[in-house]
Design brief:
The protein is mainly β and 276 residues long. It has one domain: Nucleic acid-binding proteins (OB fold (Dihydrolipoamide Acetyltransferase, E2P)), CATH 2.40.50. The chain is built from one helix and 17 strands. The chain has a seven-stranded antiparallel sheet, with no helix packed on it. It has a four-stranded antiparallel sheet with strand order 7-6-5-8, with no helix packed on it. A hairpin with an 8-residue loop joins strand 5 and strand 6. The protein is globular. The chain starts with a strand and ends in a 6-residue tail after the last strand.
Protein backbone atom coordinates (compact mmCIF):
# COMPACT_ATOMS: atom_id res chain seq x y z
CA UNK A 1 0.00 0.00 0.00
CA UNK A 2 1.59 3.32 -1.05
CA UNK A 3 1.97 6.21 1.38
CA UNK A 4 0.23 9.54 0.91
CA UNK A 5 2.45 12.62 1.12
CA UNK A 6 1.40 16.21 1.67
CA UNK A 7 2.49 19.60 0.36
CA UNK A 8 4.68 21.44 2.92
CA UNK A 9 2.29 24.34 3.42
CA UNK A 10 2.85 24.37 7.20
CA UNK A 11 5.70 23.18 9.45
CA UNK A 12 3.51 20.29 10.62
CA UNK A 13 2.81 19.16 7.07
CA UNK A 14 6.48 19.24 6.06
CA UNK A 15 7.74 15.67 6.11
CA UNK A 16 4.35 14.29 7.12
CA UNK A 17 3.05 11.15 5.45
CA UNK A 18 0.08 8.91 6.03
CA UNK A 19 -1.50 5.69 4.87
CA UNK A 20 -3.46 5.59 1.65
CA UNK A 21 -6.96 4.30 2.39
CA UNK A 22 -8.09 4.14 -1.23
CA UNK A 23 -8.16 0.32 -1.26
CA UNK A 24 -10.44 0.09 1.78
CA UNK A 25 -14.17 -0.39 1.47
CA UNK A 26 -16.42 2.64 1.87
CA UNK A 27 -18.67 1.27 4.61
CA UNK A 28 -19.24 1.56 8.33
CA UNK A 29 -17.89 -1.19 10.60
CA UNK A 30 -20.13 -4.15 11.35
CA UNK A 31 -22.23 -3.08 14.34
CA UNK A 32 -22.50 -6.54 15.91
CA UNK A 33 -18.72 -6.92 15.90
CA UNK A 34 -18.05 -3.74 17.92
CA UNK A 35 -17.42 -3.34 21.64
CA UNK A 36 -16.83 -0.23 23.74
CA UNK A 37 -13.25 0.52 24.73
CA UNK A 38 -12.60 2.47 27.92
CA UNK A 39 -9.44 4.56 28.19
CA UNK A 40 -7.47 4.22 31.44
CA UNK A 41 -4.94 6.99 30.84
CA UNK A 42 -2.32 4.69 32.34
CA UNK A 43 -4.04 4.74 35.74
CA UNK A 44 -5.18 1.87 37.95
CA UNK A 45 -8.44 1.54 39.89
CA UNK A 46 -7.09 3.90 42.57
CA UNK A 47 -6.39 6.65 40.06
CA UNK A 48 -2.61 6.36 40.39
CA UNK A 49 -0.40 6.41 37.30
CA UNK A 50 1.03 2.92 36.80
CA UNK A 51 2.06 3.36 33.13
CA UNK A 52 3.62 6.70 32.35
CA UNK A 53 3.14 8.86 29.25
CA UNK A 54 -0.36 7.65 28.39
CA UNK A 55 -3.49 9.74 28.18
CA UNK A 56 -5.95 11.47 25.90
CA UNK A 57 -6.33 10.16 22.39
CA UNK A 58 -9.31 9.78 20.12
CA UNK A 59 -12.29 7.75 21.25
CA UNK A 60 -12.31 4.25 19.76
CA UNK A 61 -14.40 1.11 19.64
CA UNK A 62 -12.96 -2.39 19.72
CA UNK A 63 -13.42 -4.67 16.74
CA UNK A 64 -13.97 -8.32 17.69
CA UNK A 65 -11.34 -10.16 15.64
CA UNK A 66 -11.50 -13.91 15.11
CA UNK A 67 -8.00 -15.08 16.05
CA UNK A 68 -9.09 -18.68 16.62
CA UNK A 69 -10.48 -19.34 13.11
CA UNK A 70 -12.48 -22.22 14.61
CA UNK A 71 -15.27 -22.26 12.04
CA UNK A 72 -13.85 -25.29 10.25
CA UNK A 73 -14.83 -26.46 6.79
CA UNK A 74 -17.18 -23.55 6.06
CA UNK A 75 -16.09 -21.35 3.12
CA UNK A 76 -16.27 -17.59 3.57
CA UNK A 77 -16.24 -14.67 1.16
CA UNK A 78 -14.43 -11.39 1.78
CA UNK A 79 -17.09 -8.68 1.93
CA UNK A 80 -14.95 -5.66 2.83
CA UNK A 81 -11.48 -4.45 3.83
CA UNK A 82 -11.68 -2.07 6.79
CA UNK A 83 -9.54 0.18 8.97
CA UNK A 84 -9.03 -0.72 12.63
CA UNK A 85 -7.95 2.14 14.93
CA UNK A 86 -6.70 -0.31 17.56
CA UNK A 87 -4.01 -2.03 15.50
CA UNK A 88 -1.60 -1.40 12.64
CA UNK A 89 -3.02 -4.12 10.39
CA UNK A 90 -6.21 -3.88 8.33
CA UNK A 91 -9.26 -6.09 8.84
CA UNK A 92 -11.16 -8.24 6.37
CA UNK A 93 -14.87 -8.80 6.94
CA UNK A 94 -15.84 -12.40 6.14
CA UNK A 95 -19.33 -13.69 5.46
CA UNK A 96 -19.66 -17.45 5.82
CA UNK A 97 -22.09 -19.57 3.85
CA UNK A 98 -24.40 -19.83 6.87
CA UNK A 99 -24.63 -16.01 7.04
CA UNK A 100 -22.33 -15.41 10.03
CA UNK A 101 -19.88 -12.52 9.77
CA UNK A 102 -16.45 -12.30 11.37
CA UNK A 103 -13.37 -10.09 11.22
CA UNK A 104 -9.89 -11.47 10.49
CA UNK A 105 -6.55 -9.78 9.88
CA UNK A 106 -6.26 -8.90 6.20
CA UNK A 107 -3.16 -10.47 4.61
CA UNK A 108 -1.39 -8.99 1.60
CA UNK A 109 -3.10 -9.87 -1.67
CA UNK A 110 -6.53 -10.55 -0.19
CA UNK A 111 -9.22 -8.63 -2.06
CA UNK A 112 -12.97 -8.18 -1.82
CA UNK A 113 -14.72 -11.17 -3.38
CA UNK A 114 -11.97 -13.67 -2.61
CA UNK A 115 -12.90 -16.91 -0.86
CA UNK A 116 -11.07 -18.28 2.20
CA UNK A 117 -11.53 -21.28 4.45
CA UNK A 118 -10.25 -22.64 7.76
CA UNK A 119 -9.87 -26.43 7.68
CA UNK A 120 -7.59 -29.28 8.67
CA UNK A 121 -6.51 -29.54 5.02
CA UNK A 122 -6.99 -26.87 2.39
CA UNK A 123 -5.19 -25.20 -0.49
CA UNK A 124 -2.02 -23.30 0.43
CA UNK A 125 -3.56 -19.97 -0.53
CA UNK A 126 -3.47 -16.54 1.07
CA UNK A 127 -6.02 -16.21 3.86
CA UNK A 128 -6.60 -19.93 4.41
CA UNK A 129 -6.04 -21.21 7.95
CA UNK A 130 -4.54 -24.66 8.54
CA UNK A 131 -2.62 -26.59 11.20
CA UNK A 132 1.15 -26.38 10.81
CA UNK A 133 1.06 -30.13 10.16
CA UNK A 134 -0.67 -29.48 6.80
CA UNK A 135 1.56 -26.55 5.76
CA UNK A 136 4.72 -27.29 3.72
CA UNK A 137 8.07 -26.24 5.14
CA UNK A 138 9.26 -22.87 3.83
CA UNK A 139 5.76 -21.37 3.64
CA UNK A 140 5.27 -17.76 4.79
CA UNK A 141 2.61 -17.60 7.51
CA UNK A 142 1.13 -15.21 10.05
CA UNK A 143 -1.43 -15.29 12.87
CA UNK A 144 0.37 -18.26 14.45
CA UNK A 145 -0.99 -19.98 17.55
CA UNK A 146 1.42 -20.41 20.45
CA UNK A 147 -0.75 -22.91 22.30
CA UNK A 148 -3.27 -25.15 20.59
CA UNK A 149 -6.81 -23.73 20.67
CA UNK A 150 -5.82 -20.49 22.39
CA UNK A 151 -5.92 -18.36 19.27
CA UNK A 152 -3.20 -16.64 17.29
CA UNK A 153 -0.56 -14.74 19.27
CA UNK A 154 2.46 -14.50 16.93
CA UNK A 155 3.06 -12.39 13.77
CA UNK A 156 -0.05 -10.20 13.93
CA UNK A 157 1.16 -6.63 13.34
CA UNK A 158 1.25 -4.81 9.99
CA UNK A 159 3.71 -6.41 7.58
CA UNK A 160 4.40 -9.23 10.04
CA UNK A 161 5.41 -12.60 8.68
CA UNK A 162 6.77 -15.85 10.09
CA UNK A 163 8.16 -18.83 8.23
CA UNK A 164 7.82 -22.53 8.89
CA UNK A 165 11.44 -23.64 8.63
CA UNK A 166 11.25 -27.38 9.33
CA UNK A 167 9.28 -30.14 11.01
CA UNK A 168 10.63 -32.58 13.57
CA UNK A 169 8.28 -35.12 15.12
CA UNK A 170 5.25 -33.26 16.52
CA UNK A 171 7.03 -29.89 16.49
CA UNK A 172 7.73 -27.31 13.83
CA UNK A 173 10.51 -24.74 13.78
CA UNK A 174 9.00 -21.29 13.12
CA UNK A 175 11.14 -18.23 12.44
CA UNK A 176 9.43 -15.21 13.96
CA UNK A 177 9.67 -11.58 12.73
CA UNK A 178 12.27 -10.85 15.45
CA UNK A 179 14.59 -13.50 13.99
CA UNK A 180 13.96 -15.92 16.84
CA UNK A 181 13.38 -19.54 15.84
CA UNK A 182 10.90 -21.23 18.15
CA UNK A 183 9.39 -24.69 18.38
CA UNK A 184 5.61 -24.68 17.89
CA UNK A 185 3.41 -27.78 18.05
CA UNK A 186 2.23 -28.93 14.63
CA UNK A 187 -1.39 -29.00 15.78
CA UNK A 188 -1.30 -25.21 16.26
CA UNK A 189 -2.97 -23.25 13.49
CA UNK A 190 -1.59 -20.50 11.26
CA UNK A 191 -2.81 -18.42 8.32
CA UNK A 192 -1.09 -18.45 4.94
CA UNK A 193 0.56 -15.23 3.76
CA UNK A 194 1.93 -12.01 5.21
CA UNK A 195 -0.04 -9.43 7.18
CA UNK A 196 -1.04 -6.48 5.01
CA UNK A 197 -0.24 -2.77 5.31
CA UNK A 198 3.58 -3.25 5.30
CA UNK A 199 4.21 0.50 4.84
CA UNK A 200 2.87 1.27 8.31
CA UNK A 201 6.42 1.51 9.71
CA UNK A 202 7.28 4.25 7.17
CA UNK A 203 4.50 6.64 8.22
CA UNK A 204 5.87 9.98 9.49
CA UNK A 205 3.58 11.67 12.02
CA UNK A 206 4.96 15.13 11.25
CA UNK A 207 3.75 16.93 14.36
CA UNK A 208 3.38 16.37 18.10
CA UNK A 209 -0.40 16.72 18.03
CA UNK A 210 -0.76 13.67 15.85
CA UNK A 211 1.04 11.66 18.54
CA UNK A 212 -1.47 12.92 21.11
CA UNK A 213 -4.33 11.67 18.94
CA UNK A 214 -2.89 8.19 19.49
CA UNK A 215 -3.12 8.59 23.26
CA UNK A 216 0.62 9.05 23.82
CA UNK A 217 1.83 11.91 26.00
CA UNK A 218 5.29 13.55 25.84
CA UNK A 219 8.12 11.37 27.07
CA UNK A 220 10.58 13.31 29.24
CA UNK A 221 14.22 12.18 29.15
CA UNK A 222 15.87 11.49 32.46
CA UNK A 223 18.94 13.69 31.80
CA UNK A 224 16.79 16.83 31.50
CA UNK A 225 15.08 16.27 34.86
CA UNK A 226 16.20 17.33 38.30
CA UNK A 227 18.20 14.99 40.55
CA UNK A 228 15.21 14.68 42.87
CA UNK A 229 13.13 13.27 40.01
CA UNK A 230 15.60 10.99 38.21
CA UNK A 231 19.00 9.39 38.96
CA UNK A 232 20.37 10.74 35.67
CA UNK A 233 19.15 14.29 36.27
CA UNK A 234 21.02 17.40 37.31
CA UNK A 235 24.49 18.61 36.42
CA UNK A 236 25.86 21.96 35.36
CA UNK A 237 24.77 22.51 31.80
CA UNK A 238 24.18 19.55 29.52
CA UNK A 239 25.37 16.14 30.65
CA UNK A 240 25.04 12.56 29.50
CA UNK A 241 23.86 11.43 32.90
CA UNK A 242 27.18 10.42 34.39
CA UNK A 243 26.03 6.85 34.98
CA UNK A 244 24.57 3.85 33.25
CA UNK A 245 21.18 4.66 31.65
CA UNK A 246 18.40 3.64 33.99
CA UNK A 247 14.77 4.17 34.89
CA UNK A 248 13.61 6.62 37.61
CA UNK A 249 13.76 3.68 40.02
CA UNK A 250 17.31 2.65 39.13
CA UNK A 251 16.64 -0.32 36.84
CA UNK A 252 19.12 -0.48 33.97
CA UNK A 253 17.54 0.34 30.63
CA UNK A 254 20.21 -1.02 28.28
CA UNK A 255 21.48 -4.57 28.22
CA UNK A 256 19.61 -5.82 31.28
CA UNK A 257 17.87 -9.12 30.54
CA UNK A 258 14.28 -8.99 31.73
CA UNK A 259 13.07 -12.37 30.43
CA UNK A 260 11.96 -14.50 33.38
CA UNK A 261 9.85 -17.19 31.69
CA UNK A 262 12.33 -20.05 32.06
CA UNK A 263 9.54 -22.58 31.53
CA UNK A 264 9.40 -21.90 27.78
CA UNK A 265 13.12 -21.37 27.19
CA UNK A 266 13.43 -24.97 26.03
CA UNK A 267 11.22 -24.16 23.03
CA UNK A 268 13.62 -21.50 21.70
CA UNK A 269 15.91 -23.02 19.07
CA UNK A 270 17.69 -19.75 18.28
CA UNK A 271 17.43 -16.50 20.19
CA UNK A 272 16.86 -13.24 18.34
CA UNK A 273 20.09 -11.44 17.47
CA UNK A 274 22.07 -14.68 17.67
CA UNK A 275 24.61 -15.20 14.90
CA UNK A 276 25.14 -18.44 13.04
Amino acid sequence: MPLKEYRPLTPGRRGMSGADFSNLSDKRPEKRLLEPKHSTGGRNNNGRVTTRFRGGGHKRRLRIVDFRRDKLGVPAQVMALEYDPNRSARLALLRYQDGEKRYILAPMGLEVGHSVIAATSADIRTGNCLPLRAIPAGTVIHNVEHRQGRGAQLARSAGGRAQLMAKEGDWGHVRLPSGEIRMVHLDCRATIGQVGNPDHSHVMLGKAGRKRWLGKMPHNRGVVQNPVDHPMGGGEGRSSGGRHPCSPWGQKSKGLKTRRNKRTTRFIVKHRGEKG
